[in-house]
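HUMAN: Mind making up another protein with tokenized structure?

ASSISTANT:
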Amino acid sequence: MSSMSLVPPRSPAPVNQPPHVSRVADYFTGGMDNLRADRELADRLRVAAPWLPQSVRAHRAHTTHVVRHLASEGFHQYLDLGCGLPYAEQGDEALHPYDAARSILVDVHGAQADVRTVYVDNYGPAYGHANTILAEERGTLAVNADARNVAGLLALPSVTSKLNLNRPVAVLAHDLLPWMGDHDAVDLLNDLRRLLPPGSALSLTHTASDLPPGPESEGKDCIRMMSALYAEAGIDFHPRSAGHLRALLNRWSVQEPGVVRTELWGSGYGRFAQRPLTGAADFTGAYAAVALTTAP
């Protein structure tokens, strides 16, 4: 069986492409799948928000933490929306969801642990890389689709053959909603709640618009500068406040500790807790929450 940590060779790409958020994140984490336009935008963003590279790494560590927590709660099926490019580097703190879930479920069910994971992205290179890496993993599937079309996604024969939609599914919407407006975000969350099996879960991470000032942030001024840079690059960017996210999740049952800063989520989950905070180096500029479907 292949390892999820394998990264395929860098694919040639036209040098005149505009920047893309997946490639910017790849550059921040030392990857090779980025272009000059991505690096230039990333360097300007880093001036506006020095914490962005550590935030990308913290986001990936959070994915591992939350998937391990969900696996410990009995979730075997995962739907990773907007999965992005593969991680340039992996370790025990930055596993892809399939590996993170298996790291827990194998302890319970042994080698026969049945983990199913569907990775979704509408960015062609992200899908291509995921499809290459996951081709030999029986429990995984990569899909080139728009996450906003939940009904169409869940109706795809390839998805229905991989996920049992009569049983709970854990959806990862990590760094997804900041790249869509309120209308699309509301429709996405409502469709997930309506179409997922009862008992399903949603893990959400989201860039904060109400940042506190501190050593790594000038608060709202920092977000305004980031928004201006993304707009200049032709990228829609929608950071949101904690209150805004609670409103978006009002039809979901948000679990403890609620909508909190990503670096603080998980402090009550024992061995799945985040490591102790060390100050400015842990600042993510984002929120996280886990919610469950509720009765209609």
In short: Residues 52-72 form the longest helix (21 residues). DSSP finds ten helices and ten strands in the chain.
